[in-house]
Amino acid sequence: MISGLLPELEVIRKDFPILERTLAGGLPLVYLDSANTSQKPQVVIDTMVDHLERHNANIARAMHQLGAEATEAFETARDKVAAFIGAPERDEVIFTKNASEGLNLVANTLSFPGEHQLGPGDEVVITEMEHHSNIVPWQLVTQRTGATLRWFGVTDEGRLDLDRIDELINERTKVVSLTWVSNMLGTINPIAEIARKAHAVGAIVVVDASQAAPQLPIDLAAMPVEERPDLLVFTGHKVVGPTGIGVLWGSRAVLDTLPPFLGGGEMIETVRMEGSTFAGIPHKFEAGTPPIAEAVGLGAAVEYLGHIGLDAIHTHERAITGYALQGLATVPGLTVLGPLDPAERGGAISFELDGVHPHDVAQVLDSRGVAVRAGHHCAKPAHARFGVQSSTRMSSYLYTTPDEIDALVEALNYTRSYFKLG
Amino acid sequence: MSAAQDLDALYQEIILDHYKNPHGKGLREPAAAQRSADVHHVNPTCGDEITLRVHVEGEPGSERVADVSYDAVGCSISQASASVLHELLVGKTIDEAMNVHGEFLALMQGKGTVEPDEEVLEDGIAFAGVAKFPARVKCALLSWMAWKDATVQARG
């Protein structure tokens, strides 16, 4: 028996209807692609259906009963998200389309005229292990503003190389933007240490929590202010919520100084033909009709995770990850990319199988009902760092069982025999 | 068809043989009498890449594919496809080669409904099974699209 698994794992699995379906040939589904997108519990599906069936209206502008109900549902979802990440203030939670939009909002508004506007001589620091969504917006913005983009390298063990931290984070640094948990290497980064350094030089700290929010307890209000990110993004669909909804949390102090990103309905205070004034947060950054049912679904999702408890989910993930690392080590010719200690990593494990390309690995696994991701996982620089073009990635979540890890290992051995390796 | 049978249809022995022993792999310098063009194509969704050089010789109107040399990284399907391309197209006139290209393209875009002509496609018929896997069609076509692009450029 593996210690640390969620005690009512079979009950939890029943919350996720998709886990009961079978694939071609009647094979059971072994879903190990949760870092890509998580599956949805019945309560999220039901909440969204109920909203659309009974409460649908536009929010904050409809003066009728349905409008009030929809607004109430949407704003309650904001409260739930605020509770999920321990936001110091609920109005600091901004709904976006996804994490990418959150990062683009931040990068772009930092290029607009204002207190924090980037310019020549300023430096933005990211890392080599970022998802493309935390690389490309900064490339675009530094190119446009004349600021310089710099980055932390990654060690052979898959950790951030902090040897040059004092040189990288200096008085020219205006923004440090990094991932909390790597989507490829699984590495958990020392956010507090880096935030402390960045704040000491007056830089803004942006954290991509897309992989952290699903599996690590986050309590922003409890973090010492010098270690707390100024801005943090994550996406709904990786925390058992729907697609089409993401979250940008930012401290009021920073959000109030950032100019608007998208202009339009609901983000204004008043509009005259000569010019406009803008609403306060969160509405300043929520132009247009938002994804209402999706926000409501996300509220149900984070409430569901909260009921199970992020500490328990994190312990479960660590137990499954440890079991998976052991199992993968038994497969001849398999090399894991990233830290090998489950205490230092999240539940995404990328690996190479000598002699079989990741797409072929994924294809053979799929024929056995095992769903993984193959490719560059939108982290091409991180792959290049390890001299590989792509990798195969398994990623677990709160519904993953040790039996599913066994099925993965068995299917990997089958893959080797299918491609006639030793 | 079961998942296992589908898999065998995808990974025909011919494909695995070409993958393990690719024909014509490596970039070669064009001979003095040859014109050449290089292209670099990528499959952005999966990251497969190929640098492909077409070597053309002969008078305009009767040019031949003297060689196709390439460096590529990618899955078995994309690598085997480049190998089969080399085997099929080198030595043909460009018109003949374009015809083979058209047949291969039709097969790959046929969603598994096109009956391949072995006279024309030879080992290329092994890719008929790939056409049933929409996610893998791009893998099979990577080198073929690169070849066409390079050939148009080499012809000038």
Series of secondary-structure elements of chain A, N-terminal to C-terminal: HEEEHHEHEHEHEHEEEHEEHHEEHEEHEH
Shape of chain B: globular
Number of domains of chain A: 2
Structural class of chain B: alpha+beta
Q: Using the coordinates above, name the CATH class of chain B.
A: Alpha Beta
Low-confidence residue ranges of chain A: none
CATH fold-level label of chain B: Sufe protein. Chain: A
Oligomeric state of the chains in view: heterodimer
- What integer is the average pLDDT of chain A? 96
* Main sheet attributes: strand count, strand direction, barrel closure of chain A: 7 strands, mixed
Question: Quick one: CATH class of the largest domain in chain A?
Answer: Alpha Beta
CATH architectural name of chain B: Alpha-Beta Complex
Q: Which second-level CATH architecture of the largest domain in chain A applies? A: 3-Layer(aba) Sandwich
Strand order of the largest sheet of chain A: 4-10-9-8-7-5-6
Principal-axes shape call of chain A: globular
Number of helices of chain A: 13
Structural class by SSE content of chain A: alpha/beta
| Estimated radius of gyration of chain B | 15 Å
Q: Could you give the count of β-strands of chain A?
A: 17
CATH 4th-level superfamily of the largest domain in chain A: Type I PLP-dependent aspartate aminotransferase-like (Major domain)
Features:
heterodimer, A: alpha/beta, Aspartate Aminotransferase, domain 1, Aspartate Aminotransferase, domain 2, 2 domains, 7-stranded mixed beta sheet, 13 helices, B: Sufe protein. Chain: A, 6 helices
